[in-house]
Amino acid sequence: MPPTEISQTADSAALRAGLQRMEHKQWWLSFSGVVVTLLLTIGIASFSLVLYMLQREFWDALNIHVAVRALVGMVLLFVVYVIYQQLQIHRFRMRLVAQEELFYLIGENAADMIAVVTVDGHRLYNSPSYEKLLGYSSAELEHTSAYEQIHPDDIQAVIAAAEQARATGVGHRLEYRIRHKNGEWRVLESTASAVPGTSNKVEKLVIVNRDITERRELEQQLVLSQRLEAVGRLSGGVAHDFNNLLGVIIGYAEALQTSFGPDNSLREAIDEIQKAANRAATLTQQLLAFSRKQVLELKVLDLNSIIADMQKMLLRLIGEDVVLKFNAGSELAMVKADRGQIEQVILNLAVNARDAMPRSGELRIETANAELTEKDALRHRYVIPGPYVLIKVTDTGIGMDETTQAHIFEPFFTTKAKGKGTGLGLATVYGVVKQSGGYIWVESAPGKGTTFRIFLPRAQGSEEQTTQAEPTMDRRDGPRTILLVEDEDSLRKLIETTLKRAGYMVLAASNAEEAVDVAARTRESIDLLLTDVIMPGMSGGVLAKNLAAHWPQMRVLFMSGYTDGAIEAHGDLKPGLVLLRKPFTGETLLRAIGDALSQTPANGANGQAVPAAENSAVRLVQT
């Protein structure tokens, strides 16, 4: 028998022994009272009998005073005993009152729910905590079975546990779901103790229930976070090398597209290579998104205008058999987020809704200002109360059960047929929302559709407009000289070829140490340092600072395929800098370089990144 059960058995035996001692004392007092009363009654009766039967002269001879004194003494003895008996009864009652008060305090103030039931499930006692935690009053529970509010899927396990306790006399710990008065299901951890009767047969069960719903939700969140972290580390670790390879594929595919016209027999194959590389780049960004490690370009955005701009695309995406409705909230506040990522969130939710409505339906998108209160923080852990902007996406599809809802945000989880989905759509949505400082909740039931609610923190300011700039190159003093530092050989050759075709003079190096040597030997003025951030040996940030001392007019443009967290930790750069994210196209590269060369070199002289075009580079942000 476990030590806990041995201790509980010993405590129960000690309590029963104490009650038996008190009961024995009460019986002894009652018996003694009866004996004394009988003796007193016999004495008085005998005195009266003698008084009537014998002659008066006889009593005078015996001295009646002695008999009266004896009788008075017996009466006084009886009075003293009665007082003693009442004192003992008072003490006994005070002990009972103290025990009742102690039991009342335990029952009233216990955080756990305490119930006493028969082995048949009839309720004998329910602590007030039932009303606090489940909403049911004692009167409401009094005429119900102990199994009535239990989830249908769990009731057999509960009945089996009760039968086992009755048969063995030992209760066991059990977890099951019970219905709250408002209809939601709560998870209880239950421990039962068997109470034997006079025949040593189990007659009652004392059940202590603990609400562990929040604990289970936290455990699920922890498991999900650990999975995201594991996949995030994997995706973040391979992102750099994979992005380098994709950059080479995309770059040379562009070169081949330029060389082969639309009528060439190989053009279709080249286009497919380009599309496959772009899809791979998107997949990499999705992997980084749900792991919350992608680089975000945060701007103040108007969600109404973003969704309005996307309506034509959404209509093509969901098909003609699905009705799209957009209810834009009035006076909607701004949010600060990455526009591309927010668009990706809307698209992923629309695709999810479309797949849930195979035979037509309605997709409704709504926006509104919202306030999360302390009440919301109690229902959803780690929610920070305050002002938010709500995006509500509702479909009339097939819906989801609770088991599916528990896994929808996990990476690679999908309910679609094999080969029909990557399982990253909703995981990406979850990662983007979390990295943007928001929350996402889902409500669904089989046959009743699904509703996603996304809460994003409000931001101050007006919407920032994105400008589309054409590729530029400053030739005021002839060809500009660019020092290119890239440790991936194939990508370095591709970038060098692209820049030379654009008319730039290029000095190439495979690492920072080689770049220092190349810069020391050149007679040309270095106009721009184009360097990878994280490289073997010296990082790009340290290289820029070292070279800035000799070329104060040099601009700096960083590029990287790593995640923002890795760049901050190992790249010697600070949040707020602008960098060129891999993989990039030739057009994006030339636009970023042209914008960098058009800036004043004040920041670059200090080894900091210069601003780049909004559509060609991203800003490194703290997340």
CATH architecture of the largest domain: 2-Layer Sandwich
In the CATH scheme, the class of the largest domain would be Alpha Beta
**β content, as a range?**
15-25%
- Assembly state here? single chain
CATH superfamily of the largest domain: Histidine kinase-like ATPase, C-terminal domain
**Helix proportion range:** 40-55%
Summarize the biggest pleated sheet: 7 strands, mixed
What's the alpha carbon Rg, rounded to whole Å? 42 Å
Task: Give a structural overview.
The protein is of the alpha/beta class. The chain folds into four domains: 3-109, no CATH class; 113-211, PAS domain (Beta-Lactamase, 2-Layer Sandwich), CATH 3.30.450; 296-459, Histidine kinase-like ATPase, C-terminal domain (Heat Shock Protein 90), CATH 3.30.565.10; 481-619, Rossmann fold (3-Layer(aba) Sandwich). Helix content is 50%, strand content 19%. The strands form three sheets. Strands 6, 7, 8, 9, 10, 11 and 12 form a seven-stranded mixed sheet that branches. It has a six-stranded mixed sheet with strand order 14-13-15-16-17-18, with helices on both faces. The radius of gyration is 42 Å and the shape is elongated. Mean pLDDT is 77; it is low at 1-12, 467-477 and 602-623.
Condensed summary:
This protein is α/β, with parallel strands linked by helices and 623 residues long. The protein has helices at residues 3-53, 56-62, 64-109, 129-134, 138-142, 155-168, 213-259, 267-290, 303-318, 339-356, 374-379, 402-405, 425-435, 489-501, 512-521, 540-548, 564-570, 586-597, 602-605, and strands at residues 113-118, 123-126, 173-179, 185-196, 202-211, 298-301, 322-327, 334-338, 361-372, 386-395, 439-444, 450-459, 481-485, 505-509, 528-532, 555-560, 578-581, 618-619. The protein has 19 helices and 18 strands.
